[in-house]
Amino acid sequence: QKEVEQDPGPLSVPEGAIVSLNCTYSNSAFQYFMWYRQYSRKGPELLMYTYSSGNKEDGRFTAQVDKSSKYISLFIRDSQPSDSATYLCAMSNNAGNMLTFGGGTRLMVKP
Amino acid sequence: GAVVSQHPSWVICKSGTSVKIECRSLDFQATTMFWYRQFPKQSLMLMATSNEGSKATYEQGVEKDKFLINHASLTLSTLTVTSAHPEDSSFYICSARAGVATNEKLFFGSGTQLSVL
To answer: What pLDDT band is residue B99 in, cutting at 50, 70 and 90?
Structure first.
C-alpha cells in the first residue's frame, strides 16, 4: 500500500463546475499538506500549503485537511478550461526534508 | 513565489554520452535542492537530496555514479546523467527549499525532458 493514495482520474467536468480532488494517507506523522498543479511537461506549481487540520481558502481554491481521517481535499470553484492539469497532493512530517507525493489526478475542464 | 530556473528544458542525446542539467534558485538561497524523476502519467519520484557543500543523499535504487549531483553554491545544483542509455529517458525536475527550516515551501523548476537515442 502506498503512503499517499490519489485517484489518477481522468476527471472530466464542464466549465463552471465545482471540482473535488482528494488524497488519503497512512502516515499519521504528516503535518504539512500541499497541493501542486502540473501542466504537461512542466514543473509542479505550488497551489496550496496548509499545516495540520483545517481549511484554507485562496481565491477559487479551498484546501481541507482532516487528520483524524487522514484525508485531504482540494476544491476548485467555477472551474475553467485553464484549470485542466494534473493535481498532485504532497505531504511531509515535521522533521523530514522530503515530500511524499500522491500519484496525481488528471483534471479536464471542458468548455 | 520564489523562482527556480532549470535548464535545458529538453535535450536529445546519443546513447553513451553524458548530459548535465542545471537548477538555479534565482531570488533566494537554497541550502537544499531535490532532484526528481517523472515517467509519463506517473508522479514524481525523489532521486536525491542535494545539500550545498556536501555530498548528495541518494534514494534507494538510484545509482550515485550514474547520476552525479553537484551543489557547489547556494543558488546552483547540477545533475549529470553519465553514459546515458535509452532507459534513462525521462522528465527530470529539480526543486529548492526557500529557507533553512524543514517546513519551508518547496518550489520546482520547469523540468527537463531527456530523450536518449
So the answer is: low
User: In the prediction, which pLDDT does A94 show?
Assistant: 63
Query: Which set of grid coordinates corresponds to residue A59?
Result: 481565491
Predicted confidence (pLDDT) per residue in A15-52, tens digit: 999 999 999 999 998 988 999 999 988 899 989 988 88
Q: Of A101, A82, A83, A81, nearest to A91 (Cα)?
A: A101
B7 touches chain A (CB under 8 A): no
Where residue A70 falls (left for φ over 0; alpha for ψ -120 to 50; beta otherwise) is left
**What is the mean predicted confidence (pLDDT) over B36-46?**
88
Place of cell 476544491: A75
For residue B108, the chain A residues in CB contact (below 8 A) are 36, 43-46
Rounded Cα distance between A63 and A33, Å, is 9
| Residue type present at position A106 | R
Q: Give the mean model confidence (pLDDT) for residues B56-79.
A: 92
Is there a contact between A47 and A35 (Cβ–Cβ < 8 Å)?
A: yes
Cβ of A40 under 8 Å from any chain B Cβ?
A: no
